[in-house]
Amino acid sequence: MAPPDVVKRVEQLRRLINYHSYRYYVLAQPEISDEEYDMLFRELQRLESQYPELITPDSPTQRVGAPPAEGFAKVRHPAPMLSLGNVTSPEELRAWKERYEKLLPEGTKVSWVVEPKIDGLTVVLHYENGVFTLGATRGDGIVGEDITNNLRTIRSLPLHIPLTEDGPDAPPRLVVRGEAYMAKAEFERFQTEQAKLGNKFTSPRNTAAGALRNLDPKVTASRPLDVLVYHIVVIEGADGPATQWETLHYLRDLGFPVALAYCRLFDDFDALVDYCVGWVDEKDKLPFEVDGLVIKINELALHDVLGFVGKDPRWAVAYKYPAAEAITRLLDIVVEVGRTGVLTPRAVLEPVYLAGATISSATLHNADYIAEKDIRIGDMVIVRRAGEVIPQVLGPVKELRTGDEKVWRMPERCPSCGEPVVRYPGEVAYYCENTACPAQLVRRVEFFVSRPAMDIEGFGPRQARLFYERGFIKEIADIYTLKERREELLALEGYGEKKVNNLLNAIEASKGQPATRVLTGLGIRFVGPITAELLLNHFRSIDALARATVEALSALEGVGPRIAESVRAWFSHPANQRTVARLTSYGLQMALPEEEKPAEALPLAGKIFVLTGTLPTWTRQEATEIIKRYGGKVTSSVSRKTDYVLAGENPGSKLQKAQQLGVPIISEEDLRRMIQQQ
C-alpha cells in the first residue's frame, strides 16, 4: 500500500499537471517553463511506476499508455447526433427563420448564437463524476465507435473536470459533443516533417480523422490534435444552462476548450445576417479549418419545442459559403471502373492547394460533361471543392491554350478487363457489364456480403480486399469456396482458429438468406432491395427472371425501360450466367418459397405505395416493412397504378408527378391511421 504522503503527492501532481496543461494547451497562457512541467510529469510517472495501484484512468500519464486495439467497439449515443441543414444566402437564412417562427407562439422572444463550423471529426465525450470515461465518434448518428484511448492523447481534452478550483462543480454525469481537429499551423509543420519521411498528408481534417481512428493510440499521440466542445448532450444531477451562450461559458469554466473568441450572440436578426455575409472574409484567418457558420437559437427551451425535421434540427442551421476555386493544369484523364461497372473519367491535376487540402485529382463526371465543357488534356482548368469536400473540374481557361492540348474520348473497351463497354439509350454513363472485371470485383464482393444483401457477419471491405489480393476470390461465387482454403486462411496474419471458424460459419449460414437478398447482392444496376422483391414476387425465381424479355420486365408496375434493359443486359453476359449457375450449385436460395394466398383482410391489402422525402420517425426501410406487413406493396416510381404517395420532408420529383396524376399524397400520420382501421 502506498503511504498517505505519497497518495497526497500523486493527487497534488495530477492537479498541477492538469492545470498547467489547461493553461498551455487551451488558454495558450503557460505559467511555468517546459522544463518545470516535465519535472512534474516525470515525478508523477516515477511514483505511479513505484505504486501502480495509484494509477487511474484520468491520470495525465495515461494519455499515451494504452496498447494497440484489435478494433473499435460500437457505442450507442444517449441521444441522436444529428447533422444540420444548410443555407447559402441571406434569403435562405431568412426563410429558415420564417419556417421555425410558424411553430412558435406569436411574440416569442428569440436570440441567436453564431459559432464557427469547425471542419473536423465529431466526438462525443462522457464524464462520470468529473472523470473522462468514454469517447466515441459520431458514426451514423445513433451508433459510433469507442475511441476513448485515442482521445486521451489529445492534450487539450480534460481527463478530469473542473480543471480549476474556482470552476463550477462537475455534474455526476455529463455528455458533451465537440469537434476534434488539427490546427492549420500544426498541420503545416506535421506535413513538412512527414514529407521528409516520404509520407503524404493532404488535409488537416483527413489527417485528424485518420489519427483518431488508428488502432494504435501511440500513432494518435504523435499527431498534434486538438478538440473544441460546443454542446451538452446530457447533464444529470445538476442544473444545466438555460441558453446556448451560457452553455459555452459553462463548458469553458469546467475546463473544456471552447471557441468562444469566435462566437457571437445576437438579438437582432438583421445584424446576424450582415455578420454571416461579411464573415466570408474572416474565415480564412481562423487558426483552424472551417466550412461555414452554425446559427443556433439561443434559448434551449425552444429547442425542445421546435424539435427536428428528418435528420436536421429546426433550431439550428449551417450557413455555407461558395466553394473555393483555383486554376491548375490538367495533366491527364484516366478512367475508373466502379462497383456497378460505370466508367467514370477522373482528372489528373498538377497539385494545387485549395480550401485546406492539396488537390491532385478531381471528378469529371462523365464523357458528355467533358465534351460539353470542351475539356482537353493539357488545359489550364478551374477546380472547385464542391461543398469544400469533393474536388471537381468546372471547365477550361480557353484563353490560356497553346494548341498542344488533346481532345479526349471514352475508350471502347474497359481499361480493367478489356471487355467492350456499352452505353444505353438515354443514359450518359458507359458500362462494363462483366462482373468478373478486376476493377469491379472488390467492390462487388463488398456489396454482396453487406447488410442489404447477404449480410455475412465478419466479412467486410478489409476481407474483400485481402482475399482478392491473395487470389482467393476471382468472382463473387468464390466466396463459397473459401472453406476449401481453410489452411491458407489460418496462415494469414490475425486469422486464428476462432476467427476463421466464425467467418466460414457465417458464409455457410448465408446460404439460408432469401432469394431477394441474393438478387440484391448480384449488384445489377437499379436493382436494390425493393426492386429485387418486386421482380421476384412476380417471376418467383432468379432463373425465371434471367429468361425474361425486356417487354415482360417493362410490363411490371414499378419497372421502367431503364431497369428492364439493365436486368436483361446483366443476365445476357456469359460471365454473369456462370456466376448465377455456381451460386445455384452451392445451395443458395435462388427462388421464393411457394406463394401464400394474399391476406385480403389486412388494411393495406392490394394497395401500391411510393415513398419520397424524409419521414418524421420512420426510416424508408421501416416504412416499407410496415406497409408490406399490413398487405401493401412498395414500388420505386409513381404511375397511374399507384394508390398512395407517402411523403415526408424535402420530397423529390415523385411528389410533383403524383400531383400531376392525381395520386393521393399521405403523411406518416395518415398511414398510421390507415393501419389502425382494421
CATH architecture of the largest domain: 2-Layer Sandwich
**Count of strand segments:** 25
Radius of gyration: 29 Å
User: Beta-strand level of the residues, as a percent range?
Assistant: 15-25%
Helix content: 25-40%
CATH homolog superfamily of the largest domain: DNA ligase/mRNA capping enzyme
C-alpha geometry: globular
Count of helical stretches: 24
Structural class based on helices, strands and sheet pairing: alpha+beta
Mean pLDDT: 88
Which CATH class of the largest domain?
Alpha Beta
Largest sheet: 6 strands, antiparallel
Low-confidence stretches: none
Tell me the CATH topology of the largest domain: D-amino Acid Aminotransferase, Chain A, domain 1
Q: Span between N and C termini?
A: 71 Å
Number of domains: 5
